[in-house]
Amino acid sequence: MTADPALAEGFDLRRLDAAFYADPFPVYRALREHQPVKRLADGSLFLTRWADLDRIYRDTRIFSSDKHKEFRPKYGASPLYEHHTTSLVFNDPPLHTRVRRLIAGALMPRAIAAMEPGLHALVGRLLDAVAERGEADLIEDFAAAIPIEVIGNLLGVPVEERGPLRGWSLAILGALEPVVTPEAATRGNAAVSDFLDYLRGLVARRRARPGDAATDVLTRLIEGEADGERLTEPELLHNCIFLLNAGHETTTNLIGNGLELLMRFPDQRARLLAEPGLIGTAIEEFLRYESSNQLGNRRAVAGTEVGGVAVAPGTLLTLCIGAANRDPARFENPDGLDVGRQPNRHLAFAGGPHMCAGMTLARLEGRIAIGAFLRRFPGYGPVGEAVRGGRARFRGFLSLPVRVA
Ligand code: HEM
Q: Highest taxon of the source (predicted)?
């Protein structure tokens, strides 16, 4: 049965309703089937097919990540504007190449492997606390607590100073939604300013007393590459903020969404319990099925064509990762959850030169957190109402109450 064409016809990214936030997949399906390259009222295009996204992510000659043009009217001259336009993800070469090299160098397997014992210990402590209470909010008490500690460790933020990190991150990411209210903009701007003030102090302390560049990412970003490549002070500060934001809500949502999916699909939970070795493919399937990051953007800098639709230079494109990852042209039975799915070339981490630089770390966190939770509480189940995040770009829960005993 084909999807209702009216869902595709009526789709407006600037006017999303509660039903969409709860379950956008019927709308995504209708768009993919009837208007896979949909022109929105503002002239931008909304894309839902896997093959189109895959091509666009790779072709940086035509599709730019530079957001100066788009963000100037959205944020004005403000801390949010300065932050986003200095982050590597919203830039093209040369800034992107320079920062990416330093960040990728700092997220080397050796640095990540060094985090593994600490991660097991942290997850163990969180699980002990959950066991003691018999109930937990999977987000607040578990999923959100993990990435914040991991990135705190990555940047060497002293434990007692980590309190405000999550709030800053949520406020900055909240201001990336398709529609930004004045309150969300005010919160986002205040968060960037406070975060910058904090980081200036942290960087000064680290310059005075450098850490081990093999494992301490901040020291590595401060010192730069052996060949003299260095970040300017604003580049350093804004990309530290970006690292925290990039790795925080996305990974929280991977853990929360994965544990929720295992409640929704008891057959897949039983399978994973019987075959714990499937945890690696299970994580990929959670990323595909409920992608933490649902929407990406690019701007065409030259005229081209996508799926038979002419694309003029300057056109803004929204790439719907959530829809592409359920495309039947790429995935067999795309609306079914299969924890052993292989191959599974999803686009949850995007693709091409901007592909997520933290994916090894995110996968490790997901494997350890979800694997350990399931082993410890194989019969966990919902208690009370789950609350979704209510965002189009980042998909996850604000609250997910469960009982474990
Ligand atoms: C499940 C967790 C995660 C998901 C789903 C995710 C997703 C993504 C996506 C889709 C992009 C590409 C954005 C674009 O070009 O439009 C990206 C970029 C990036 N991510 Fe992640 N991410 C995750 C976790 C992390 C973590 C843990 C870190 C590091 C601590 C991280 C660091 C980065 C960085 C530095 C970039 C920018 C890369 C570039 O522009 O070259 N991410 N991520």
A: Bacteria
What gap in Å lies between CA 61 and CA 75, rounded to an integer? 27
Q: How far apart are CA 118 and CA 321, in angstroms?
A: 32
Q: How far is residue 390's CA from residue 170's CA, in Å, rounded to a whole number?
A: 13
Using one digit for the tens of pLDDT, what is the confidence trace for 178-231?
Answer: 889 999 999 999 999 999 999 999 999 999 999 888 778 898 889 887 677 789
Q: Separation of 374 CA from ligand 1 center, angstroms?
A: 26
User: Is the Cβ–Cβ distance between 203 and 230 less than 8 Å?
Assistant: no
List pLDDT tens digits, range 9-47. 999 999 999 999 999 999 999 999 999 999 999 999 999
* C-beta atoms surrounding 69 within 10 Å: 12
Q: What angle do CA 239, 138, 289 make, to 5 degrees?
A: 70
> Atom 34, ligand 1: which residue's CA is nearest?
357
Low pLDDT (below 70) residues in the chain: 226
The bridge status of strand 316-320 relative to strand 45-47 is parallel
Confidence (pLDDT) at 226: 65
What CA–CA distance (Å, rounded) separates 266 from 249? 26
Q: How far is the CA of 319 from the centre of ligand 1 (A)?
A: 15
Q: Which of 204, 296, 174, 195 is nearest to 240 (CA)?
A: 195
